[in-house]
Structure formats: C-alpha cells, structure tokens
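fyi for ur records
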Amino acid sequence: MKKLKEIENKNQEYEKYRWFYTSNKHLVIGGKSAEQNEEVINKYKNKDKYVVMHTKSPGSPFSVILAENPSPKDLEEAAIFTACFSRAWREGKKREVVDIFLMEQIIKNKNMQTGTFGVVGPVDRKTIELRLYSEIQKNKLRFIALNPKNKESICITPGKINKEQFAEQIAIKLETPKEQVLSALPSGSFKIIK
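which gave:
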C-alpha cells in the first residue's frame, strides 16, 4: 500500500474535486459536474481494482476510493459521501441508493454524454441516510460521513435553510471563512442536527 504522502503528492489537484479522507486515511474524490466526473474516471481508468460509486439515480459524483481493497468502513463512508453530494440532497430526500462497483466494470461508448458511463457485471447497492459531520482535514473544512466525535463538529441533513444563509451561520459557528464553508457543502438546503 502506498503511503499517504505519496498519494497526496501524486494527486495535488484533488482539491478541485469533491474530496475527503476516510477514517482509514484513504482519499476519496468525486466530480462536481459531468465534466469533472469524466475527468475523474479517465484519470483512474487504469486502476481496475479501485472502487467507484454513483447513486442509482442520475445526478451524483462518480466517487473513487484511491486504494485497492478498501475496508467495509471505507466503503460505507464513501457511499455516504456519494449520496450526500448527489441530487438527492438538493431534492431534500432522507435516503438514497448508491451503486458500488469496480473501475474495470465501467464502459463508455461514443453515444454516451459527457460524465455518463455504463457498468457491466454485478453491482452492490447500499441505501444511505443523508447526514454529514464537519471536520477539518488538511487544514480545510470538510463534511464527512462519520462523526469525528469532537465537540466542535456539527451534524447536518437536508433541511429548509438555503445554502448562502446556512454557510454564514456555519462560518460563524466554526470560525471558518464563508467561502470555505460554501465549497465544502453539498448543493441544496440544510438543517443542523447538533
């Protein structure tokens, strides 16, 4: 297994995508748009054993765990990330189904639009509750899948407060620049659980 430092050096531009580190320190990245989904898949298409995720419904990142043989905990965290940064959050859903497959199962033909891919072979599915927790990773605010169990962490779900207004509240509460909060949040509206 490559050391975390080597992965970071190799993927210096990961911050332009949606990203976070699992509790086992594996980097997970996902596209913010159809164009970025295309980039992410093309960037790692030769890593056959990397796990990829996408919601069963359209409108989600293609998320890739940058590790071979991730643990069940890594899979769970990446599935939550994928569901929460999908259209499901914007639509105010409580749950979303995430498809889990290997990079080697992805196919692309000429007729498929940018950011659209097919999957061949068996697909695992997880139903995910939309809920995220704040944490600082690599000196940046991230909203991650599992509670980091620190007093400052807040839990968010889809709600009724618009993104701009919510980002102002979170920036004050976490003493973090509003721009950083905006870039870390999913699209949609919000509610604080704790």
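The longest helix spans residues 72-84. thats all i got for now
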